[in-house]
Amino acid sequence: MSELRNYPSDLLSIQQMADKLGIHHQTVRRWIKEGRLKYVRLGTRIIRIPISEMERLKEDVKSALPADNQNSQPTDGQDVRPVT
C-alpha cells in the first residue's frame, strides 16, 4: 500500500485538485467524466490529474472572464445598493 502513495509529485488526487481550485470533488469527477480533464489511472480506483491540467484549466477560466471582472456592473439595469 505504501508504494501507491509514492506517485509523482506532478500528479494530484481528485481531492487535492478540488482543494487547490476551491471546488467540490464531485465537480472534478464530473469534469473527468465529461472529458474536460485528462487523468492518469494508477489502479482500478486510483485516479490522478497532472498539475499541467490544473494550470490549463485555470488559464481557460481566466481567459473566459471579462477583462475588468472586479469592477463589473449588473447588466440588467437594476441599481444595486448595499443592504443597511
Entry keywords:
3 helices; three-stranded antiparallel sheet; Multidrug-efflux Transporter Regulator, Chain: A, Domain 2; 84 residues; globular; alpha+beta
What does this structure look like?
It is built from three helices and three strands, in the order βααββα. The protein is of the alpha+beta class and 84 residues long. It has a single domain (2-61), classed as Multidrug-efflux Transporter Regulator, Chain: A, Domain 2. The protein has a three-stranded antiparallel β-sheet. Strand 2 (40-41) and strand 3 form a beta hairpin. Helix 1 packs across helix 2. The mean pLDDT is 78.
Give me a quick take on this structure.
The protein is an alpha+beta fold and 84 residues long. The protein contains three helices and three strands; from the N terminus they run E-H-H-E-E-H. The protein has a single domain, classed as Multidrug-efflux Transporter Regulator, Chain: A, Domain 2.
- Poorly predicted residue ranges: none
Query: How many E strands?
Result: 3
Which term fits the overall shape? globular
**CATH architectural designation:** Orthogonal Bundle
Biggest sheet overview: 3 strands, antiparallel
The CATH topology corresponds to Multidrug-efflux Transporter Regulator, Chain: A, Domain 2
Strand content: 5-15%
Q: What separation lies between the terminal Cα atoms? A: 57 Å
Derived from helix and strand composition plus strand pairing, the structural class reads alpha+beta
How many structural domains can be distinguished in the coordinates? 1
Mean pLDDT: 78
